[in-house]
């Protein structure tokens, strides 16, 4: 999800989206090199043979162009190592599109575009300029009902989706990945304009993560295995891992497309159908991908997207009697409402990825250079709008003053501006509400006695920009040390002992992620075990990859997304027991 | 008819090592033939021990710590396999044509069954690459314990001639998905598709040395692989006789890990309550598919007494209608046997059946004036002691036996040293499940036959093999488990 930071590579410039690397272009017909053993002779014969006998010389492959991730590098880089090879095969970042049209602004149901039942639309903005980008059809309860009916229909026994081979579901997801890769520039530009996200991050990190997520989940489709069970008595017992049914999915605005795919890819891989509500601030990229879903060949009704607001469309999903499961990423406050609605309606299954107030603990023995950059990125990445933002930085006493001084130097280096502009390193906050909330928290920090080291106020005349802000001498009971800020505001606290810092780090209702910086093996393992947190990063931060489960302890969430664990949330286990005449081992 | 004349004599197919093409060290070549026409297709460089050594060296270098292959993200390994699948799909017609020329199997089977299997197997294992997960273990004491599932190292693969490319992919795909490097010896009868695949492996961008292909003969190149001290694992598909040699050589050399897919004499049990149309057709395809040259061939059909006569009559009708001929003809269901040696062996077994008193219902001889073609043959009144009921025939010969009770047929079905597959035809739930548990076979098909999927493991009980290919189970054959235990400082909380 967020930018992976791995210390061995220092401050990474452009991330490591290896999978999304450069694509070789291969023409449909194979071009034989001179050294190719079949050469001009055999190949000609073979084609003649096929032509004469079966007229298959025009046999089309599904992928006329075969993507190559590392062959380009293999040809040019003299095998220095996979990592350099993979990173050198990273795409050069193209310029963002300047003439992007927002074509897809309606409700997507049954692979078709619909107007809202109410006739209402809502505006979507560019947070860097406060300009309106377009209007989008505003879904509400009636639209959600329509979408659920379509999803239910697509999930009927005997439907094309239910009777499809699992491997074919995987193929469809793989195709979708190829299409997202094809439209990568469009989607990255959209994500940047609509989400205020730096274009280079959108292109490399968000879209790179999207491709990996789709391909990872594609592979699971035919690997979700039930078991046969050695039950007592003369019985034969086996389990089927079946899709749950119609899944409602409510998305956040900080990683709009990536979170969309985190939700739909495992759901579809398991064979569910989905009704998705993207965040009202950022519905555009999901709607664009809707056309790709149709193009890939998913049957109608399998994916339905209803843009709209939380209290209307979102509430309709979470309290719907015919939705079997709801997944939500967003604030803890709204997460509670969703679980409550699920309980009051039909006890639908719930997974929640909520807020965090993640501790990052830097011990004095850490590699200071790396720790500074990683802790900095861990908070300031994407303007601080990450659920994993390391917004409680605990630094060991002996290095505290130097750490603060250098963190401030680092924070002052930012160039604020339009995220589409090259060289800009910080974009705007998503909207006015967030902007005001962050400024209010900054004020509370000043009032409650934290030392403002830099920043501390808004920036510019238009757009929701906030200066990168660092507070030192922060104590645990201040609001900025307790509440999720979701902005570019770093709190640096001091600690003395291991026991003490573990206690303080855990002293919160949140438990999403945590970071540790130390070279000491024992400390690393002991503290990772002690922290109440769904993810612990040691000497790195925000290393989120699709193979690894992600989710929160305590009030940071319920359940896990991604990894094999994420798939449990999208399946029901059915135990089938058959009476037999005689059991044998 | 296919003309092979435009394959120039000099264009010998070379050895594939380090993503490059090599001549054999000895300078020797061998010819590969089209079994339909008995014409030579081309010459192939003949690998022997020195060539295997070169290949192993390349594979070892590619497997060094810090090599591009070892450092590649698992997801990227999967991506390479997916891309290989794309190229196989692109060149599907070429590969199917080569397969048919070299092995004599009907082109449509090659195109739709062999190549489909290859593509699906590659894609299936592509997906596993980043899902091979170790565990953390709640050991006693104040320690942290976790497992790493690491690749085994350099894997040798010796593949058969009946499904040349598919059997190679069955070995290659799991080996590569787990991060191993590979040295392959394709069967000397059918080396062409494997070598063509080498060119695709290079095109996709696998690092040099990850896959190496050394065509050659069993007693030379094959023996060099199975006894090589630097090869960590060997996978072999072929006869039980050679399988024993491979395992013996593995033990004598370096105790390399061994997986074997060997022969079978597979029972196909037809109960009186079965859907007879289905059973007749499945049993027919089960034994005659690929000219009977399948390790899974249904070469002992046990039919319950009440329906025996009817079953035999209908099976004979089927066999008589089976179109035998040019494998490039779309109507052809049966091509030639692979070579003279197999052809002679099959005819000898057919003669033994006649001599030992089985009733020849149809076929029973070679096609007139036609090289290596054998008429679809059905024997009834076959008893368990006859050679055709005990030995693997690997030809288009269907022996049909009679049974009276379930307990009896279980005993008879299990009485051989083989245990690869078994099939049951019945509509009765309890009978089906009882037979499924009672039969000593790595695979049991109920109301179907040759239902082989990349997702499902395949392999033999008893002397039909060791280990499993395909499915998640295959991954355990290509990984070593490493247990890492870290003692923690008791002073920390």
Automatic annotation (TrEMBL), chain A:
Task: State whether keyword Oxidoreductase applies.
Answer: yes
Lineage, top-rank taxon, reads Eukaryota
InterPro entries documented for this protein: Ald_DH/histidinol_DH, Ald_DH_C, Ald_DH_CS_CYS, Ald_DH_CS_GLU, Ald_DH_N, Aldehyde_DH_dom
Coiled-coil annotated residue ranges, if any:
none
What cellular component GO annotations does this protein have? cytosol
Location of region: Disordered: 1-36
Q: What class of enzyme is it?
A: oxidoreductase
Composition bias, kind Low complexity: at what positions? 15-31
Aldehyde dehydrogenase domain location: 113-576
Q: Which Gene3D superfamilies match?
A: Aldehyde Dehydrogenase, Chain A, domain 1, Aldehyde Dehydrogenase, Chain A, domain 2
Q: Which GO terms describe its biological process?
A: cellular detoxification of aldehyde; fructosamine catabolic process
The record's active-site residues are: 353
- Enzyme Commission number(s) from the entry: 1.2.1.3
Does the record carry NAD as a key word? Answer: yes
Q: Which UniProt keywords apply?
A: NAD, Oxidoreductase
GO MF annotations, alphabetized: 3-deoxyglucosone dehydrogenase activity
Similarity-based family: Belongs to the aldehyde dehydrogenase family.
From the Swiss-Prot or TrEMBL record, give the protein name. aldehyde dehydrogenase (NAD(+))
TrEMBL record, chain B:
Nucleotide-binding listed as a keyword:
no
Q: What is its EC number?
A: 1.2.1.36
Taking the first listed entry, what is the main subcellular location of this protein, grouped into a coarse class? cytoplasm
Pfam families attached here? Aldedh
Q: Name one GO molecular function term.
A: retinal dehydrogenase (NAD+) activity
InterPro entries, alphabetized: Ald_DH/histidinol_DH, Ald_DH_C, Ald_DH_CS_CYS, Ald_DH_CS_GLU, Ald_DH_N, Aldehyde_DH_dom
Q: Which domain of life, per UniProt? A: Eukaryota
In this chain the Aldehyde dehydrogenase domain maps to 21-484
Instruction: Alphabetically list the UniProt keywords.
Output: Cytoplasm, Lipid metabolism, NAD, Oxidoreductase
- Entry GO CC: cytoplasm
Quote the catalytic activity from the record.
all-trans-13,14-dihydroretinal + NAD(+) + H2O = all-trans-13,14-dihydroretinoate + NADH + 2 H(+); all-trans-retinal + NAD(+) + H2O = all-trans-retinoate + NADH + 2 H(+); retinal + NAD(+) + H2O = retinoate + NADH + 2 H(+)
Quote the pathway field: Cofactor metabolism; retinol metabolism
Name any Gene Ontology BP term: retinoic acid biosynthetic process
Assembly notes: Homotetramer.
Family note: Belongs to the aldehyde dehydrogenase family.
The job of this chain, per UniProt, is described as:
Catalyzes the NAD-dependent oxidation of aldehyde substrates, such as all-trans-retinal and all-trans-13,14-dihydroretinal, to their corresponding carboxylic acids, all-trans-retinoate and all-trans-13,14-dihydroretinoate, respectively. High specificity for all-trans-retinal as substrate, can also accept acetaldehyde as substrate in vitro but with lower affinity. Required for the biosynthesis of normal levels of retinoate in the embryonic ocular and nasal regions; a critical lipid in the embryonic development of the eye and the nasal region.
Q: What is this protein called?
A: Retinaldehyde dehydrogenase 3
